[in-house]
Amino acid sequence: MSKQTPLFEKHKDLNAKIVDFSGFEMPIQYKGIREEHMAVRERAGLFDVSHMGEFFISGPEALDLIQHVTINDASRLRPGKAQYSAMCYENGGIVDDLLVYCFDENSYMLVVNAANIDKDREWIHSHNNFDAKLDDRSETTALLAIQGPSSIDILSKIVDEDPSGIGFYNFEQGKVAGQKEVIISATGYTGEKGFELYIDTRLSDPVQIWDALMDAGKGAGLEPAGLGARDTLRLEMGLALYGNDITEKTTPLEGRLGWLTKLDKGPFIGSEALKKQKEKGVERRLTGFIVQESRLIPRKDYPICDSGGDRIGIVTSGTQSIVLGKGIGMGYVPAETAAEGEQIQISIRKKMVSAITKKPPFIDK
Amino acid sequence: MKHPEELKYTREHEWVRDNGDGTVTVGITDFAQSELGDIVFVELEEVGSGFDQDDVFGTVEAVKTVSELYAPVAGEIVEINESLEDDPELVNNDPYGEGWLIKLKMSDASQLENLLSSDEYLQIID
Questions:
Q1: Pick from A23, A96, A207, A247: most CB atoms within 10 A?
Q2: pLDDT of residue B66
């Protein structure tokens, strides 16, 4: 039985196409991916991403637990700041990527992928030898994302404090549309300016916030946007998707997440394996690429070949870039091929199609 | 969603119009275009290519997914919809009209009888 978010009836009223996504009945599109994608790039889009998981970690050793299970340095966080991070297995493979929010030195929130909620909770729980409490509030936390250049203006109409003062990867807690204790976070997964609103459904009604945002965004061209546009938007920015581009079989160093792997912060789960891999040098690396021939779209699992036609890797995500009108994708290739501007080929059904490696983002932002 | 009664349908979500001159026009159904979402490219085999029933005669690329096209009856392509080259979204906007895909000259017209009526097709997608 699939779960529904508190916004489910809204999506049905809006005639969304609903699909099962990680055990949730989620809107994949309303009017169409292309229109929703451009609304976010040019104006604003409103996403229901309540399927994401939220773990609250508290206690005198909350930070020690987080430092032990995550690869980024959470000790650098200050109250009101968030950080992109990941959890690894002992062998360096990725458990999940996540956001870490700091409320105060004894209180944090981890935001994890919907498909991994149970796995992540068990993983953290099994490594919790600390004086810290893990509270999985995924079921009572709704998450709305308003993304796009107009999102600040729209949000400012329904909050007391001016949200333009919230810096990227910072957050505040306050009232939104009269609803209490909403976490207003300047984060997102689209490459645009925007906010993610975490709503405690025991205290506040996410439907009221959705309606207030849609109402406030009427004159600004705000459109509801589904998971289809969320995927094309994140891929244009080259943002990794767990399960596709990063998995338990890939490490952060291979998956373009070296910048958040803080090997000098002290030992953490996976740090030994990652140190060794760093010393040896990675053999393969996630690269972005743009297909040179128009109208051929790379998809997950299509083979990547060198210019001679020998198979060297595999596509992990691919789509038509709505902005470029070209096929774009990411995939793992030998490290020496992952540099910018290398000629590769993608095997798209029966055809070999030339592509050029590109360090994402694929569009200028 | 529209599924005109005068057309025949396949389980692969194609429609077939009997032109009465030994040819049929083939397209994808309103249901199919809606499931695929925004179509960005339609790739079709060339005029003159021959197919058995259920052979692949092309692919439809949508933003999210790609889907193969299967010949509803055996025959030879006598015409392809050239407008789709520049305007693949015609398949979304007018699947039974300007968004048609190919015309096939049938090699065995009796195969038309195996196809589904609109009522039978509606039961499949229900």
A1: A96
A2: 87
Chain A's closest residue to B33, CA to CA, is A32
* A297·B66 Cβ contact <8 A: yes
Q: Say which of B37, B43, B59 has its CB closest to residue A33.
A: B37
Interchain pair B40, A295: CB under 8 A: yes
CATH number 3.30.720.200 is the correct assignment for the domain at A3-51+139-235: no
Domain enclosing residue B93, as ranges: 8-108
Least CB–CB distance from A228: residue in B34, B43, B64? B64
Q: Cβ of A299 and B66 within 8 Å?
A: yes
Query: Does B64 sit within 8 Å of A33, measured CB to CB?
Result: yes
pLDDT in tens, A17-47: 999 999 999 999 999 999 999 999 999 999 9
Domain count within chain B: 1
| Beta carbons of B37 and A299 less than 8 Å apart | no
Partners of A327 on chain B (C-beta within 8 Å) are none
Minimal C-alpha gap between B75 and chain A (Å): 22
3-state secondary structure chain A: CCEECCCHHHHHHCCCEEEEECCEEEEEECCCHHHHHHHHHHCEEEEECCCCEEEEEECCCHHHHHHHHECCCHHHCCCCEEEEEEEECCCCCEEEEEEEEEEECCEEEEEECHHHHHHHHHHHHHCCCCCCEEEECHHHEEEEEEECCCHHHHHHCCECCCHHHCCCCEEEEEEECCEEEEEEECCCCCCCCEEEEEEECCCCCHHHHHHHHHHHCHHHCEEECCHHHHHHHHHHCCCCCECCCECCCCCCCCCCCHHHCCCCCCCCCCHHHHHHHHHHCCCEEEEEEEECCCCCCCCCCCEEECCCCCEEEEEEEEEECCCCCCEEEEEEEEHHHCCCCCEEEEEECCEEEEEEEECCCCCCC
Would you tell me which CATH number, out of the four given (3.40.720.10, 3.20.20.450, 2.40.30.110, 2.60.120.260), belongs to the domain A283-365?
2.40.30.110
Mean pLDDT to the nearest integer, A205-223: 98
Whether A28 sits inside 8 A of B64 (CB atoms) is yes
ipTM passes above 0.95: no
Q: What is the pLDDT of residues A102-130, one digit of tens each?
A: 999 999 999 999 999 999 999 999 999 99
- Does any domain span residue B90? yes
Nearest chain B residue (CA) to A227: B64
What pLDDT, in 10s, does the model give residues A248-299? 999 999 999 999 999 999 999 999 999 999 999 999 999 999 999 877 899 9
With an 8 Å Cβ cutoff, are B37 and A228 in contact?
A: yes
Tell me the residues of B at the A interface, defined by beta carbons under 8 Å apart: 34, 37-38, 40-41, 43, 59, 61, 63-66, 92
Determine the pLDDT at residue A161. Answer: 85
Q: What is the tens place of the pLDDT at every residue in B11-37? A: 999 999 999 999 999 999 999 999 999
